Amino acid sequence: MCVLHLMLQGFDPPHQSETRTIYVANRFPLHGHYIPTVTFSNGDVFQYTIWNFVPKNLFEQFRRIANFYFLIIFLVQLMIDTPTSPVTSGLPLFFVITVTSIKQGYEDWLRHKADNEVNGAPVYVVRSGSLVGDIVRVAKDETFPVDLVLLSSDRPDGTCHITTASLDGETNLKTHYSVAETSVCQSVSQLESLQAVVECQQPEADLYRFVGRMTVTLLGEEIVRPLGPENLLLRGARLKNTKEIFGVAVYTGMESKMALNYKCKSQKRSAVEKSMNSFLIIYLCILLFEAILSTILKYAWQSEEKWNEPFYNQKTEQERNSSPILKFISDFLAFLVLYNFIIPISLYVTVEMQKFLGSFFIGWDLDLYHEESDQKAQVNTSDLNEELGQVEYVFTDKTGTLTENEMHFRECSINGTKYREVNGKLVPEGLTDDSPDGSTPHMVNHNKNGSQKNLKNLFFPIQSVALCHTVQISYDQPDCMVPGSDPFSHVNGFSANHMEYYASSPDEKALVEAAKRIGITFISSNGDTVEIKTFGKTEKFKLLHVLEFDPNRRRMSVILQTPSGGQIMFTKGAESAILPFATSGEMEKTRLHVDEFALKGLRTLVVACRHFSPEQYTEVDRRLNAARTALQQREEKLQEAFNFIERDLQLLGATGVEDKLQDKVQETIEALRLAGIKVWVLTGDKHETAVSVSLSCGHFHRTMNILELLQQRSDNECAEQLRRLARRIKEDHVIQHGLVVDGASLSLALREHEKLFMEVCKNCSAVLCCRMAPLQKAKVVRLIKTSPEKPITLAVGDGANDVSMIQEAHVGIGIMGKEGRQAVRNSDYAIARFKFLAKLLLVHGHFYYIRIATLVQYFFYKNVCFITPQFLYQFFCLFSQQTLYDSVYLTLYNICFTSLPILVYSLFEQLVHPHVLQSKPALYRDISRNSMLSFRTFLYWTLLGFCHAFVFFFGSYILMGEDTTLMGNGQMFGNWTFGTLVFTVMVITVTLKLALETHFWTWMNHFVTWGSIAFYFIFSLFYGGIIWPFLHTQDMYFVFVQLLSSGSAWFAIIIIIITCLFPDVIKKVFYRHLQPTNTQKNTLARALFHTCTFTLEPSHSDSNRLAADCLCWTKWGLDFSLFTL
């Protein structure tokens, strides 16, 4: 036996056959066989490889309008003579592309690293060949590396137990079987001599379907055995309660069912980025309009002879003979280059830095740190930070995401009396456990004078729970035997105190463990007998038949032979599946208790029994054997037999089990609902379990009208049910509806009735989808994502079965749970608990969206302010393409003079205090549907930029009109002084405009705001005060010093700034007093609360002042519950 690094490989068959033939241990026949080719194929959970990184990343980068635009401008500057140097466009473009590619490459490298840890895990292979057909050994608690057909295990019957939590979300134990002929091959030598061939279907994504057969050659005879899902061990599942198994690999790599349920990793783009691209297109149109208009006006102006070729600018012979069309195109491109700064390429640099630096705040947030597991929130993709503030639908897994995967027995009803468990004892309702420690009885009898028969009646329902199940037991070998220990505490050499139960249902495990605590212990099951210990007394029951659970009956039964020789059937199941078939027992009281348990959010089961006479059992045995050996219509015949047997039941009682939810799940879901976010639960679990958890976690309310779309078998039946549901929604005068749909019905609904299904879903406050395959989860997310409203979706899960929906949603959240790290590795963000989702969305999402929305609008505003004076200046220089600003100012405006204030603002701005956002989830609605980047808001900022630019230019122009002397010595200002004056006013105004928008001031905001203005003055004095030898011209020498020496210039600067900003101040005051938003109301409320000071014994005047304040706050519509923060 050797150790290989199994790299999860697969192969493509050479033909399109519907089946494939696999030779176990790669024992191929001598002629006419096909040996599969080994190909290396990694799961596509990452975006780049070392070979496609450069071309693919460049393609993604130039999908951005600004990047593509500046690439064109750079090429134009290289080809023709333009007013500015190619460096002014090429250098910023290179910087943006480089920074972004490094960031995205680093994030993808982290995903590669995590994926390689899984792909490089060692796997034991008995006989190596081409992987498909290899015999693989898997030990207890290991995951299956490929899809295997079980050959044998260390158990004599060749069975094994697995959990598929990372595939379908179910944590219960599942039993898988090997065929009888291979189950005896439990050693390497036996397996190497095994001659067998597996014929099975080609790979498909359905986790619950597998069709095949195995042909085993023994002593020259070929024996054919059928293979089904119970024989297939899926990659990603985990081996439990079995020391080791051997299996033959049938599907590997990207052909495994888990890999087929993965979605291809795609580049996600936020709604803000899409809005940016739309705005950039509008600005591109403005740019083209300005360039075309300037070109046309230039030629219109030059139509006059005196302006076409003035004496001081004579044309060369080449210019006179050049083509007019080429000259027009050349001038158009020159104007395009002159105005190109209206498209802010530095916007993308700032956005990338804001996203990258801002993502650290999520990891640093102590409120998102889980102390028990020592895990903090992590950001895998910082490109989607602002998308957290736009979520409209949350799709969540159930197991491990909403729950802790832990079941606890809480209460029960026995013979019409309700009991609760206290310290391992059943205490009747209304009584307390007052028995001393060490007392023998584990059940406190409310009837102190009760007879032994009554006590037996109390124990009997607990015995039924300990016997009616499919629980398996694992024993740990004790280190030593303790002298004087209980002789009954050891079974087959193992300690009963070290037993570990594994169950096919989490409820079963909780009930069996509860029975053990009470004193009735299930200690062994070896196929034919079941053994329990009742308060130290061992009892053996012969297991005659197991009537398995199925979703139609919603119950399961076991038929046993008692130690006294009688036959009895124990049955347990849902209330609706047991009570209609019960003929005796405390039915009304039990029904009432079941309703009480359900109101507490407990998962309920009803327990009953039936005694058989010898004649009755003979008929039962005959019917069951006939149905189980039928070759035709076996399932229908089994249902008939079960219905015949499970009747005339004696009701024993009911149980209430708590499916332990994660902390604050109910509060989190309610907060999301108040924020206007619809929550859908998508789970692979059973219908009853899913509904119970939805009720207990608050996803479904008790007052909701629950609609069901379950077990639809045809398109017509599904369509008719959907129409009935739609009518019920219209006719029922219920505020809220909830919808439950299973995977099979969902497939039919999405096939031809998608529109009708969407209509029903949109009218429901909560939707629960159960029995969902991983790809079905992704389809549901895509259905909502691509609906006409185009809502922003978020998917949250913790297992490999959630990866597809996490990748499909706009935002994917991985829970660091108990089901592996697949979801975390493929997610955009990872958190330790579901409760952290509330702060991640309501606080971080709110902040990120407001910050980046203001950043985008502000960038467009300040660039309009920057370029519009340049456009206006052309009207005063005969459209000669003369620049208004010096080239150094052109380069540094976006890089140095105005970059840091907006970056710091976008990192620290808080429009509302975080506590207010968490306590008032409805504030999340104020920013929904990308409201701060609406066309109306965009138009406001754009027009504001044009207005300020006109004030900058014409305010300076009026000051420096004809024959105006601004210097004490009579000197006049020149064109560079005029341009510098406009530039100075602009830098100060756009910086102060951002200061007006800032609500949360830190020392860093003050430093960069006033520091940027100071840096501009210091730099200009330094730049204009020295003759720089490497510059071709010294146009700016002493210009700034001369400008600042004029008192008129200072007066103009102050007047122009006030003229620009004073209307903004008036507007803000007007809107805050007459039309305040909910956010502004709550901000004011918190400010008033913190400024109020009251004495311990307020005077009469203090009381009057408090009443007046309350009246004022009420007028503003403020909520007083805020003051409890």
TrEMBL record:
Q: Which UniProt keywords apply?
A: ATP-binding, Magnesium, Membrane, Metal-binding, Nucleotide-binding, Translocase, Transmembrane, Transmembrane helix
Q: What is its main location?
A: membrane
Gene Ontology cellular-component terms for this entry are: endoplasmic reticulum; plasma membrane; recycling endosome
Q: Name the enzyme group at the top EC level.
A: translocase
Q: What is an annotated GO biological process for this record, any one?
A: phospholipid translocation
Domain named P-type ATPase C-terminal: residues: 824-1077
**Taxonomic superkingdom:** Eukaryota
Q: Which Enzyme Commission numbers does its entry carry?
A: 7.6.2.1
Q: Where is the active site?
A: 397
Keyword match Mitochondrion: no
Amino acids binding Mg(2+):
397, 399, 798, 802
Cofactor(s) named in the record: Mg(2+)
Under Gene3D superfamilies, the record lists: Calcium-transporting ATPase, cytoplasmic domain N, Calcium-transporting ATPase, cytoplasmic transduction domain A, HAD superfamily/HAD-like
What CDD domains does UniProt report for this protein, alphabetically?
Answer: P-type_ATPase_APLT_Dnf-like (cd02073)
- Every copy of the P-type ATPase N-terminal domain together lies at 47-89
- Where in or outside the cell is it found? Membrane
Q: Which intervals of the chain form a coiled coil?
A: none
Specify the signal sequence span.
none
What this protein is called in its record is Phospholipid-transporting ATPase
**Residues binding ATP, per UniProt:** 397-399, 508, 549, 572, 603, 683-685, 771, 777, 801-802
How does the record say this protein sits in the membrane?
Multi-pass membrane protein
Q: Name one Pfam family in it.
A: PhoLip_ATPase_C
Family recorded in the similarity comment: Belongs to the cation transport ATPase (P-type) (TC 3.A.3) family. Type IV subfamily.
User: Which PROSITE patterns does its entry note?
Assistant: ATPASE_E1_E2
